[in-house]
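Hello forum,

I keep getting stuck at the same step: I have a sequence, I want structure tokens, and every attempt I make locally crashes halfway through. Rather than fight my setup again tonight, could one of you with a working pipeline run this one for me? It's a single chain of 122 residues.
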Amino acid sequence: MSFTPEKLQQIKESTETYKHEIETLNTLIYKESDDTRLDMLYNLRALSTIEHCSRIGLFGSDETPESEAEAISREVSRYFPHKDDAELFDDLAILEDEVRNRYFDDPDGSKKTLLDALKITL
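Reply #2:
Ran it on my machine without issues. Output:
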């Protein structure tokens, strides 16, 4: 599958942002010892995944063909080859339904709330 130059640029830019956020959060997660803050960091990582997948077209459309999703994933891997998909999607899987729904409904607001509570920026 081929993408338009605009779509390729969108995937590249989103992936570069996502990579930075995930690497920053992983560093913070590995250094954190407080369980409450650790939970918030994992939730931020889940929110970063939600935002990225929404920006590149993997979330938000119930009808994304599997072949297109696979092609998008391959393109993402060009810019973030060492990401751990299983770990990142596990972050989403363990969220309680109410939290997951809130994150999908308002990822920006939820992310800002967590960033403010943790007193960090990405």
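The radius of gyration is 15 Å. If your local run keeps crashing, start a new thread with the error log.
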